[in-house]
From TrEMBL:
Region described as Phosphopantothenate--cysteine ligase: spans on this chain: 190-396
InterPro entries, sorted: CoaB-like_sf, CoaBC, DNA/pantothenate-metab_flavo_C, Flavin_trans-like, Flavoprotein
Reactions the enzyme catalyzes: (R)-4'-phosphopantothenate + L-cysteine + CTP = N-[(R)-4-phosphopantothenoyl]-L-cysteine + CMP + diphosphate + H(+); N-[(R)-4-phosphopantothenoyl]-L-cysteine + H(+) = (R)-4'-phosphopantetheine + CO2
Enzyme Commission number, as recorded: 4.1.1.36, 6.3.2.5
Organism: Novosphingobium hassiacum
Pfam family, one: Flavoprotein
Family: In the C-terminal section; belongs to the PPC synthetase family. In the N-terminal section; belongs to the HFCD (homo-oligomeric flavin containing Cys decarboxylase) superfamily.
Listed pathway(s): Cofactor biosynthesis; coenzyme A biosynthesis; CoA from (R)-pantothenate: step 3/5; Cofactor biosynthesis; coenzyme A biosynthesis; CoA from (R)-pantothenate: step 2/5
DNA/pantothenate metabolism flavoprotein C-terminal domain residues: 185-393
Flavoprotein domain sequence ranges: 4-177
Binding site for CTP: 277, 287, 305-308, 324, 338, 342
Name this polypeptide is given: Coenzyme A biosynthesis bifunctional protein CoaBC
Active-site residues, as the UniProt record annotates them: 156
Amino acid sequence: MIGKRILLIVGGGIAAYKSCELVRLIRKQGGDVTCVLTDGGSHFVTAMTLAALSENPVHTTLWDLKNEVEMGHIQLSRAADLVVVCPATADLMARMAAGIADDLATTLLLATDKPVLAVPAMNVRMWQHAATVRNVATLRGSGVTVLDPDEGVMACGEYGPGRLPEPEAVMAAIASHLEPVQGPLTGKHILITAGPTHEPIDPVRYIANRSSGKQGFAIAAAAARAGATVTLIAGPVTLPTPPGVTRVDVETARQMDAAVDAALPADVAIMVAAVADWRSADEAQQKIKKDGSGKIPPLHLVENPDILATLAKSDRRPPLVIGFAAETNDVLAHATAKLARKGADWIVANDVATHLMGGEVNALHIVSASGVESLPEMTKDAAATALVKRISDAIA
């Protein structure tokens, strides 16, 4: 962090008070921080406080004659090593997603050529609103790193996701951007899928499975700790994004298939997601209602794309392709058959009759052309670390 320059944009929310502690942490670790205080942010913290903590002038307006004669908004946007928006309110993220530049903060964000880290904080209903979900997806798709908020009691008295992460967690995310981890997978791109897919039947019903995404997210975190560049394509789960991981959220199997293709090339693909095998052939546009006749409406199913098999046969196939198999019986026999059928290099199997989906522990069996290696029962984090160690040894 020593000598690194942070441009900190402070949005207008009660969580803005935590930005003061964040400034202190950046300075403590040897970083230089320049603050941009939005009009909303100035209702919660003062420019004088931020100036005293950062030991730099605080910028508040686009209409500063001296600065703008020198095109100050362009200089600010490009002089930093990283732009951090903390707190990133629902309004500020909406304007970022839309490309609006109607004040100093949004103009800087539109003019910057540096990486951007946004740290959301808002009411739980605002965070879960469809508009915010779309805006977050747009920002992530544009290359902005958007942290997931913490879950807990908020200033408004409601409980749920939306709290600003503690300054120490934000500081760790900043450090991971500025000082990439060096490890056995440094320079490697690891592509991981995780979680279930939801296949709509009508606007209120869908086909899904019990996957929690915990094992896939743990593998993504372990790969990032090993120095890899990690793209995590996640089905509908509420897990926080691991530090240093680029996350792409999807819902259906077809969306996941497209996201995997868009994320290539990769050095390793780890297909952990429990993708629905089938989807409804005809998604109803309105809720299917009972008509009182006692007759059950037919549900016609069609196969979803086989993401693992398609990837294994692709012209852009990663050198190491790993599939997962959640089985309830004859685990090794089914995994061995899947290895041949899918064309993968490894199949990592587990018995979900013994270790239920969504649990905290797992016992993995790594099946390859060389045979079977069975790992003992351990936490999903430990299992992820063990698997990543074997991957790094295989591609070293």
